[in-house]
Amino acid sequence: MTAASAGAPAKPGRPRLGLSLPNFAEPQVLVDLGVRAEVAGWDGLFLWDHLHGSPAFPVPTADPWVVLGALAVRTERITIGTGVTSVPRRQPEKLARETVTVDHLSGGRLVLGVGLGEPPAEHTAYGRAADRPTLAARLDEGLEVVAGLWSGQPFSHRGEHFTIEEAQFLPAPVQQPRIPVWVSCTFPYTRPRARAAQWDGAVLAAVGAGGTIERVTVAEARAAVNEITALRGPRSGPFDVALATTGLPTEREQAAYAAVGVTWILAAGWLDGMPDLIEAGAR
Length: 283
Prior knowledge:
eight-stranded parallel beta barrel; 283 residues; 12 strands; alpha/beta; globular
């Protein structure tokens, strides 16, 4: 598997290094952190895509796509994207327009990370179903629509969840043949790996009790990469494997992950610890 072309090349023998930031903040806070991350030498910055906190966790929440638009014009090199956008709770035509706009503003530095969307309350609070089969069907069909609209050609679609009649979206994305789509693959679920194999990347993560992010082992990463590689079969083109983890692995650990096919390490954490991690992590 080869890394996508967006962003600066990784240092020899290690994956690219990115930050995975919650969008639970005032917008300017996230923009400032993204600018600081580029100055500090990080390769990427990916925003979570949540709608709200909860009555037990009342917190300011910024729209990630508006923030990514600001980051696109405030940065020059760093890869930007989502980790992850819940395609099932978005209208695909709106998502297609947002992604192409940010792709152009950034000069082709956008990655679209996608998944079902957690927690279930972010679906049910707005009157939508949250069962995994329904969300998976909306995700797959939504991605089909987004990719069709990205083509820049007249596009129609009639499916179970979405209908498009002779819509043509211009301009097409800067990145061709499309904006890279990375699919969330959370352990222990295995079905998302088949979905990832059809697109441009996989984001490997392990979530423990209470939603905490746990470290995916090198052996687990190797097994997932081998499975996705087999599922991709003869498909060609760049494919990234990102590993979401708390904090940043040591250089030796990074090299071990790179050896089994991991192309990105995404250091996730709450915002109160991010300034120190940004300054210390990527040089």
